[in-house]
Each structure stands twice: as C-alpha cells, then as structure tokens.
Write a structure and sequence with these properties.
Layout (H helix, E strand, L loop, with lengths): L23 H16 L6 E5 L14 E4 L5 H11 L4 E7 H7 L1 H10 L4 E6 L34 H7 L4 E6 L3 H13 L4 E6 L11 H4 L1 H7 E4 L6 E2 L5 E6 L2 E6 L21 H8 L7 E8 L5 H16 L4 H7 L8
Parallel strand pairs: 1-2, 1-3, 3-4, 4-6, 5-6, 7-11
Antiparallel strand pairs: 5-11, 8-9, 9-10
Helix pairs in contact: 1-6, 2-10, 3-4
C-alpha cells in the first residue's frame, strides 16, 4: 500500500556506497531513495534486483528486499519475483553491459511480455567493473581496453530495443539531471507493465565525459529537450526553439524564423497507442536534433503477471485444481512405467 509518510532515509541502509568518487551511480542511488519515498510503497513491499557490474551493487545500499544475482539474469529473476509475488514493487538495476549484452535476450522478452517491473538501465557506454572494455552501447570508433584501435561496430540504442520489443513505457534522463531522473522513476513505478528508464551515467575512470556533448551546462539547453505529456516540444535558451513535423520526420526550428510560429510546434503525447512519433523522439541523439529526456512513451496494455494470475484463477475454478500434482493427475496426461 502507498503511504506518503516515508522519507528517503527509510529506503537507505547503513552501508556506505562503494563506487568511485564522482561516479554517477551515487546520484542515481540518492534519487532512487527520494523517488521511492515519493511513490510511498513501504520498504517491506519493495524488492531491488540486479545482475553484475558497478551499477549492480545498488541493492546493497537499499533498506528493502534485494538480490544481487548473476550476470545478465536480473530481468529473468525480477520476472520470477514479480510473478510469484505480484504485491511487491520490483525494481531491476542493470548496466548497459549486464542489461543489453549477456542480458539482452532477457531484456527484450521482459519488455515484450510486459512484466510489471521498473527496469533501470544505467548507461555509461563502457564495462566499468571489468576495467574498461567496450560495451554494446559504445559508439563506433570507441578506443578501449578491448578495442585499442577503435570499435568497428555500431551500438545498440536502448530506446530502439525497447520499442522494437513492443515496449509500452520508455523514459530517459542523465545522472546530473536529478529532478528529471526522479520524475522518470516515479512515472515508471506508477505505470503498470514493463517500464524502461535509461539513465545516461558518467564513468569517471574509464569513459569520463562521454555524455558531455549534451550534459555540460553551457550545452544542455540547446542539445536536450525535456518532454512533458500535453505540453509543447520546446527547448533552447528561453524555449526559443521547438520541434515541428517535417514530412514523416521531425525538424528543429527557431520560433519566429523562416515563418515558424509557436502554433507549428508539436505537443507531446506520451499516451498515444501508436509509437511512430515517440520512437522518432527517442532516437534523437543530441546532435542534429536534441536528446529527448523525460517520459517519452507511457501507454497502458495488458500486464503479464496479472494475466498469469487471472488465467490461473480461471483454470482452478473450472477444473478444481488445488496443486500442481492435482493438475497433473486430473488431466490424465500421465502414464505408468512397468
């Protein structure tokens, strides 16, 4: 049950976070504590599941149920936790390597099934825990421990994977945008179904400044756009720029120039059943078009764990099953070996 009397400290335990000084994970952890307090689900009704990696240490610093599981299997185990006990609010914490490399198959199927868990993908575009190998989200040409002459691969884009797996919720923020990150986490928790939140995070040791092209304060206004459902898609200093329709694509314009007015600027619809425009917004990268932050898609659809329990109840009522053994014996799908 939700309770508005919780504070961030109720979700924080006595352990000191063991991440490098300056790591973006510190900020994300603190925001998660605040988001949980805002949501108001009791710590005893909350579970935090992680895989392997720097970000996957996060459950150690939570005053909730938690499991630090094996590499790439956080989504699978979180699915089991939520399906077995749907009353729990379940958070999955993965890095770009853990969540999208060895865990990529589990990620897309959890999204496809629409399991009611909140999936945080902390994306620093590098393997940090194992000391600086390139990851599935590293940009083409990235020089790393495992690609000393630059990668010759194109990266996964988490948003594209989410939409390709028929995802119904996708939001994005970055580690220094504390208020936006909290907004995304709260919206994810209030969404029924698989909710993916990508948090772009800085690794000060092995990939420092990877997000500086949009995250630096002097660049942020012109290289990012904060999307809010029902509001105009405005960005830039003094909101002087906006996104307009250009055929089937999007275009960034300056209001008052080339005949464009505020009336031409699109209004964000996060709840639209069609993801056509939402996917275009999510794919903007901060170069030619501003990087989209905030809740990009939030559409309600049937939820896996609810459907499992609904079907189970219907079958039990129809056939009178009370246990797995009972079900096996009553279906007569058995035989004897003599």
């Amino acid at each position: 049950m939700e309770n508005n009397n919780y504070s961030a400290s109720d979700y924080k335990n006595s352990q000191s976070a063991r991440w490098c000084p300056g790591c973006g994970d510190h900020a994300i952890l603190n925001v998660l504590h605040k988001a949980m307090a805002e949501i108001g689900v009791a710590p005893k009704d909350t579970a935090v599941i992680s895989g392997i990696g720097c970000s996957s240490r996060l459950p150690y610093y939570m005053n909730t149920y938690g499991m630090h599981t094996i590499h790439g299997r956080a989504a699978a185990i979180a699915t089991g936790v939520k399906t077995a006990n749907p009353e729990l609010t379940v958070w999955q914490i993965s890095g770009d390597g853990d969540g999208l490399a060895i865990g990529g198959n589990h990620f897309i199927h959890c999204v496809r099934r629409n399991v009611d868990i909140n999936m945080l993908i902390l994306n620093n575009k590098i393997y940090g825990l194992t000391k600086g190998q390139y990851s599935p989200t590293s940009d083409r040409g990235t020089v790393s421990k495992s690609s000393p002459y630059g990668t010759v691969e194109d990266p996964f884009i988490p948003a594209e994977l989410c939409f390709g797996a028929r995802g119904n919720f996708f939001a994005r923020s970055f580690d220094m945008a504390l208020q936006t990150t909290q907004e995304c986490m709260v919206a994810a928790a209030r969404h029924k179904g698989a909710a993916v939140v990508e948090v772009l995070q800085n690794c000060v040791i092995f990939n420092d400044g990877i997000h500086s092209y949009f995250a630096d304060k002097e660049k942020r206004a012109d290289h990012t756009i904060h999307l809010v459902h029902g509001e105009k898609m405005l960005f830039g200093k003094d909101n002087s720029k906006g996104l307009v329709q250009d055929g089937f694509l999007l275009k960034a314009v300056t209001i008052g120039e080339d005949g464009y007015t505020i009336d031409d600027v699109l209004v964000h619809d996060a709840h639209c059943a069609s993801n056509f425009l939402q996917q275009q917004l999510a794919m903007m990268d901060g170069h030619e078009l501003p990087l989209a932050l905030g809740v990009i898609r939030d559409y309600q659809a049937p939820v896996y764990n609810e459907e499992v329990w609904r079907q189970t109840s219907e079958v039990q009522a129809k056939y009178g099953f009370t246990s797995l053994r009972d079900m096996i014996m009553k279906t007569h799908e058995t035989w004897e070996i003599k």
